[in-house]
Amino acid sequence: MKEYLLVVLALLGVLILGGLSLVVPRLRRRPEPPTPKTEVEARPEEELKAPPVEAPPSEVSTGILVEPPPVIEAPPAPPIEVPEPTAGRLVRLRSRLSRSQNVFGKGLLGLLSRDHLDEDTWEEIEDSLITADVGIDATREIVDRLRERTRVLGTRSVGELRALLAAELVNALDPTLDRSLNADPKVGMPAVLLVVGVNGAGKTTTCGKIARVLIADGHTVLLGAADTFRAAAADQLETWGGRVGAETVRGPEAADPASVAFDAVKRGIDTSVDTVLVDTAGRLQNKVGLMDELGKVKRVVEKHGPIDETLLVLDATTGQNGLEQARVFTEVVNVTGVVLTKLDGTAKGGIVIAVQRKLGIPVKLVGLGEGPDDLAPFDPAQFVDALLGTEPLARGA
Ligand SMILES: Nc1nc2c(ncn2[C@@H]2O[C@H](COP(=O)(O)OP(=O)(O)OP(=O)(O)O)[C@@H](O)[C@H]2O)c(=O)[nH]1
């Protein structure tokens, strides 16, 4: 009996120990926080079910032709612009000369209208002209002639004085000079225009604007990007050309400018355009190597035939300093015309007179703003009318 009791107790002990080993680990383990459901998991199952995909009916099984996927067309090329006509541009842009108008129209006319034109007044007139960059020699001539004519005239009305001043200024601008652009082709050969000047004068912009001037006047034009020094210049020129449908010939970066210019003229001959306009890199007149390079561009282009026009682009805001630069250019290439840019940004509009006197070369075009058609053929009478604020038809000089 005792033995039987011991066996029962031993069995009970085993059962109790076994039960504890099952319960204790459960009690020790801390419950894990529930992991937040992702947005997708949070959505009801129904929602997650993809809509049923219908298989396209097969042509074989249905006998119906399946349309091919639509062809995505390239965006249409921007329309070719029609540049403004060149006639009347200077009249349209006359207000751009407002800073110079203050000197000539208001300042000079005010002085001339004084009751007594004494020595001090004449000195003031002289100073105004010199400040407006007319240049000393031209100023002396203009003032001497004005003194003489006002003395002869005796009493003077404002209208008469305005007419006298206008006549003297037009005379100083030499209205007899030929200012037309030589841009007409010869038999089998386009006219070739070379555009030169110092850095930042506005050559590339002016090339683009000249292309528009020529196209407005009925020419076909090809542009040559021989400014291989400034990486963006060729892109800039190409954009200008693209707007008016003119092709641009360019070379690889840092290519020999003479070879790009040569290729451009060759392409112009092959495609029978009327005019090839060659843009060159800006260069300082005192850099001998760069000036020699310009001479080479000219010589290489001339293997095709003579250059018809070499335009020197001058920044009007550089005033008298620009004149010395200009002189050196005329020694290296045969400059036939001047383009005076940025006249809209200066009160020194008299620089037109000084440039022509110093270089003996006509100003053919003037830049009066950054807009694509803000380049005008230069006309002395219209320019003086604009400077003096005179109505074009009212000027009786
Ligand atoms: N206000 C005004 N700005 C002008 C005129 N002509 C050119 N410019 C500006 O002058 C700046 C220089 O023009 P660019 O054509 O790049 O000059 P660039 O001579 O080719 O320059 P480089 O190749 O560096 O020698 C540009 O911001 C033009 O918009 C103008 O008549 N009036």
From TrEMBL:
Part of the signal recognition particle protein translocation system, which is composed of SRP and FtsY. It is an enzyme of class 3 (hydrolase). It holds the Pfam family SRP54_N. This is Signal recognition particle receptor FtsY. It comes from Micromonospora rhizosphaerae. It catalyses: GTP + H2O = GDP + phosphate + H(+). One of its GO terms (biological process) is SRP-dependent cotranslational protein targeting to membrane. Residues 38-49 have a biased composition (Basic and acidic residues). It is found in: Cell membrane; Cytoplasm. Residues 362-375 form the SRP54-type proteins GTP-binding domain.
